[in-house]
Amino acid sequence: MKTIKKIQTITSLFINKNMKKTLQGFTLIELLIVIAIIGILASVVLVSLNSGRNKANAAATKSTLSSLQAAIALCCDDPSHTLNTTLPNDVCSVAIASSLPTAAQLKATGVTYSTSGTTCQSTDPTLVVKLTGHPNVACNEATTGFVIRTNSMTSPAGC
């Protein structure tokens, strides 16, 4: 019986000493290192999210502008029709229920429309869309812009 009590006493002393060592906590340097690692990881994630957001805005803009291809084809079925270039008009001089997208719909602050020739009598009627204030800077290409034809659409490089 005495030996059992001695073993329990020695065991409890040993356990209490080890518990005290494990309950000390972290040092200040360890906490600073962990905080620095979390900060670096957070900055990497934020940078990748921002580039993803720009790509999504560019994709939404291209999708909106690609719908104009069908509108140009529908408008130019009759060569006497003309393409409009001012907001908030319909794409065509005759209402075809397809209006020109606004700057907000194109994820930009400004938009201008121009044509190679306003009438549909040309062999390949073309609508040129130039954006300003788009989150993806490559989409703000001022020289060429988005060139939309009845069967194709070209966008600025990098957009």
Quick description:
With 159 residues, the protein is α+β, with helices and mostly antiparallel strands. Helix content is 43%, strand content 12%.
Q: Helical amount among residues, as a percent range? A: 40-55%
Mean pLDDT: 83
Q: How many E strands?
A: 4
In what range is the share of β-strand residues?
A: 5-15%
The number of distinct helices, counting runs of at least 4 residues, comes to 2
Write the element-wise H/E pattern from the N-terminal end onward.
Answer: HHEEEE
Task: Give a structural overview.
It is rod-shaped and about 115 Å long. The chain starts with a helix and ends in a 5-residue tail after the last strand. With 159 residues, it is of the alpha+beta class. The chain has one domain. Strand 3 and strand 4 form a beta hairpin. Helix content is 43%, strand content 12%. The mean pLDDT is 83. The chain has a four-stranded antiparallel β-sheet, with helices on one face. The longest helix is centred in the first third of the chain and has 48 residues. It contains two helices and four strands.
List the topology elements.
Elements: H1 2-22, H2 28-75, E1 110-115, E2 126-132, E3 146-149, E4 153-154
Antiparallel strand pairs: 1-2, 2-3, 3-4
Task: Supply the key terms.
159 residues, 12% strand, single chain, alpha+beta, 4 strands
